Amino acid sequence: MSSATHDWKRGPQLSEKTLDGSVGGPPPKPMLWVFVIAMLLLVGIIAVSLVNGESAYRLDSELTALPRQPNLQLDDVATESAQSLPSRLLCGGYAEAVGHPLEEYVATNTAVAIKRHFLTVAGHSMKGVVRPSHDSVTKAVAYYRSCLKTITEHGPMVTANSRALAAFLERNKLTFRSADGVDLLGKTLELLTRYDLQVFFALNAHFLPQPSRNKSYVRFVDSPVFREWEARKADLSHDDFAEYVGNVLSRSGVNERRMADLMDSVRSVEDHVKEARRADEKFVVQETTSAWRRHLDVHMGHVYSGAYRLDVESSSGARRLRAAARVLDEGQRSVYLSWHVARHVVEVCRLVSLHSGDSEDDAKAYCYDQAHGEYKHAVMATYLFKIVNGSRIREVRKMVGSIAKEVRKSIRRSSWLPAMTRFALENKVRMIKWRIGYPAGLGDWQGVDDFYVRHPRPTGVFVADYLGVREARMRVFFAAFRGNNVSATEAFDFANEAAGVAYGAPNQVRVPAVALVRPLFNYGGAPELNYGLLGSILLDAIVRAFDRANMMDDGHGFPVPWPPIQRRLFRAKYKSQASKRNARSRTPTSRKGRTRTSRPAVSVGAHALFRAYKKAAASFDGGRSLRGLEALSADQVFHVGRCFLACGDTHDASADPLFAGHRCNRMARQSLEFASAFRCNRASYTSWRSLCDLW
Predict the structure, then answer these.
(1) For bias kind Basic residues, which ranges apply (predicted)?
(2) Once rounded to an integer, what is the mean pLDDT over residues 117-136?
């Protein structure tokens, strides 16, 4: 109900109080008639305004009743002095928000939805609290952390976010282990959420195979790839390490003025990470390794021969392997699967000797360290195998088809491009090969049992599906610094590939199974969520087909006919560099000051995605179940989902700490559909439409 409705109810109550003589006695009869007529006129005016408001804004009017924010109104007819904070956040950007970033608004309005959703997934119900599963709580922590954005290093938001996260973990029976507690948590959250320095650190929810309430905890750890870098005995002296940290920070959009302070913060967190790792390493390795071996000994029998040799060649070993898949419960399957993959990788890479003798304990510790650090996502396999079935993949393929169809339609309507160019670009989108869910040969099976029967050995599926993209980009980043080959990082895009969805040659898009589950995709869920979240990622992958050198090739080895003028115009629209100031603020990729190629602008394909979403919404009859987002209309939820993914992508160093060039902010300013959904002033968009409006 809108605020105007509340005012209408309060009005008659006050008039009745006056008419019954509670204040000053009953009025004279002539004055009574005058007063009654005045009130009737007032009620009529309010009714007319309500009707007009409903017809003009429809569902959008519900945004005026934001839960937990009674003082925040989205009303563009208000005076300048009373203009609402959310309206300025969504329409005006960070520069006008003065210390209140858009992420704060998004996090506030989605906090309840996030908590309820993941607590439900984790097993919390009305009947009681069930022990959370491995993957669900890990994702809950990661997703909740992604909402926590900071303003300044020592600002109030850092402490507030830190305490909120610590309380959230505590309610879920997870204890944050750190010498400095909340202070270190806040400092590290800033490095992770504001500067995306996950190349150094990660927030890790650690579980034993059979977690008990007193053995589950959360801690900050150094990233697996950074640990591997150390394991390769790279000689990082004090000065070299400082130089390396500086290079990483410069590529993360850090202002020169903040470089020294952030380097100290990185070093401080690193010291605590190493201290915590030394304290926990022995306990973790002993307890976890012994638990894993107990499960394997009970359920796997003689499948393992020797210390690290997997015996699946013999018929008895293969039968035992298949039989185990049917007796193990979900947790035990996850334990087996992660151990199976880890040992296979360790054996192939020859990181551990088959007969290590006296150093066998060290070899086991290193095996566990590599397995748990780099292949912990394999524990999610059981969860994914059960729910990522043929029905879910078909629904995603339907969404892919609708988005690609609208992108082709937008290309066809681009009259400013020559006909031959339009035909080549449209055909390239049509011929994209989509690898959805799993590599070839694994798209038809219905469950984990079928997987074990057909594929008794790990064949790289898990590594490719869960860690391939993330680990590969980090390895490239580390490898670029070998031999001071800094210029090689020009080919490396530091921006995250969301959920591992990526476009690559030859003209194909890979969508791993981990992207087909919540929160990015809800089977049978509302289109505004699915298209706003996973749809945005799929669109970004499609438009990558026209990035850099890709725009010159049609995907089959033939050149795209580009006239020089149209090619320059297309590149400008693709990058959407709205001003010279924004162009200068691009993060440099080398000491020579060259700028790296930007990601596709958030406006590229926005019209096509919006049309695909609206068509899906028109035929959707499943109802909306968006707890915590009831105050937002469907179009607003769609754009909040898009913006939520874009927040944290790219920071504008020249505007620190307000991030005026933030992708999320540019989306708000450059999208006409966004402006319509949130009733922003469209006058501010007209000057950029010719440049930042592509498909």
Answers:
(1) 581-597
(2) 37
